[in-house]
Amino acid sequence: MKKILFLSISLTALFSNFAEAQINAQQTVNDIVTNERRFADKNAVDKTAGSKYFNETFLPAKIVGSNEIILVRHNAYTDDMEVSVNDDIKIVPAETNMVINMVNGSISYEYVPYTNEKGVKKEGYLKLVSNNPKAKIYKSEVVYLKPEVHPASGYDTYQPASYKKAKDEYFIKIGDSEIKTLPLKKKAIVSIVPEKEKEIASFIKENKISFSEDADLNQLGKFINSLM
Fold it and tell me: Which pTM was predicted?
């Protein structure tokens, strides 16, 4: 794995011995903070209403390839993975197929190329809903900035700019195929594996799978994986 974040002992004990991890290239905090485009105003107070995060709390996590525990959170507005270093906020340099697992095992993010529902090819962090060798289901976590609205007349009121959570979008990866959008409709889902449509339809019906519940989609992903 190339260019994974390396934070030296001299800067913080949180990242001691990181050089022993399975990392081919290293980048110190001093190297990172010189990149002004990435770090400008990361620690400045943002007075905009709403939040850039689905979860503002920094959680202990590991980057796959390292045993070091770091404190991270996903900035859903900039699509960056932020790391807390001595109460300062830095950005984890993203690399394709990099996986970040929360220590409690409940949440994992993978930095991957994918195609969204509009057919646009992107690369960014997707949250793993169902992580299996041959069938993975992902979910995007996106926050957008709703612009301020000035009153057009005396009857209207001013509305300040605010951060809003975008509608969840789901994706699927079968085998070595590209990651593509997953419409949460039964007809689309049962056709994921054309030769197994009957089995998938039966599983959905028998297990009363709800496409609006991540736990149910996790079960569905595991079942599809079993068919491969």
Answer: 0.76
